[in-house]
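Hey, I'm writing a tutorial for new members on how sequence and structure tokens pair up, and I'd like a real worked example in the thread rather than a made-up one. If someone can provide the structure for the chain below, I'll link this post from the tutorial.
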Amino acid sequence: MAKYIVHLGYPKTGTTYLQRKLFLQLKDEFKLITPEFENCGINIRRVKYKLQNGIVPKRLKQAILGNSLLISLEGLLFDPMRNVSKGDFSPMSFVKALEALYELGEEYNPNDVAVVLYLRRQDSLIHSLYAESKIFHFDRCEKLNTFEKYVESVLLEDSFSTDPGYYYNFNHTLSEILERFSESQLHVRFFEDLERDIEKETAFWSGLCDYNFEVVYGKENARSVDASTKNTDAPNFVRYHLIGLKNNFFPGMKLPLTMSKMIKRKLVSAGSGEAQNITLNDITLHRIMSKYGKLNATATMKRYLNEDLADYYFGVNKK
């Protein structure tokens, strides 16, 4: 039975490794679309642009007819978080991309459709996306052209999909995916697991694709096609601790209601202005993992994540 698999990954969640080391192993079994490879006879950039505008190219539909398809184009989630046009933050539509991805999968049996979303710690996510996108995106927007301005915008603006911080709230991303795809089709994975246990993540993909993947060790970080990801090592000033940055530059800034009470207390009490690391708590993600992660309720569901990740993204304190 033909399978349809959509891989969506937040910045620096092992996307390049997955595309080069795992997904390419499928090239003789699946139709495959990544930023660097396709075997559908299409132009990757044009297809990505059309999908971002809610359009499914007829040529692509014809190419995948009767075949399994795995599509992994990080721009579908990246560009709604970073795109700048004419000096203003002007994100591509993630909703339109999801609509096109859903339409693309309509010919498949719903039981053979899967959307895999990789998440990572929020503070690392902010650092990574800014560093990767600074030169070709944020430098062009006066509102976002320093890390200080960028963090302020992300923390304060997340009410609308056109706000810089909207897709840093995982609830928004999950909700929009679930508007089109069912809960049984959504698989939530964590970069920390891929980093610590490649064998386990490889086994997950083997089961999902019904293919015996070879386990490949090592990291892949350099993207050779998309110019916006070149020179990704932005200056060291990007590597501020998020809490230290807030204390030093925005002591009077009001935090979103969805930030955790612990983090709020930490910020209020940090009168010295010295950088403080976010305390790591053993946060159980049983509610999320049992719903979307397709794992048993075991100790493996616990992740050492900063508390603001759990609260800010999974709505622990959201009313």
